[in-house]
Model the fold of this input.
Amino acid sequence: MDKQYIIPVVGQIYRNRGGGEYRCTGNRLYMSDEQQRRALSLGDHVAYMERVKDGWSLTAHGVIQYADGTIEWNYSTGEHFPY
Done:
C-alpha cells in the first residue's frame, strides 16, 4: 500500500486508520526548510493532534498518510484530555 510521511495541515481533520477523526492543531517549528525536510524524510516530524469527538490531545511523531487518505503515526506522547 502506498504511504508517505506528511506534515499535517493545521485545522484539517484526518481519519485515523483506527477510525477516529483527528484535527491537526499545530506542527513543530524548524529553524530552516532543510531541517523540516530532513525531519520529514526520517519520519521524525512532530504534529499536535486532537481527537474531534472528545478533545483527547496528543503529540504525533512521524505522521504517515496512506493512498486512501487515512493516517497513522509512528508513536505518540503527551496524551491528555483538555483541562
Q: What stands out?
A: The two ends are 38 Å apart (CA to CA). The longest helix spans residues 33-41.
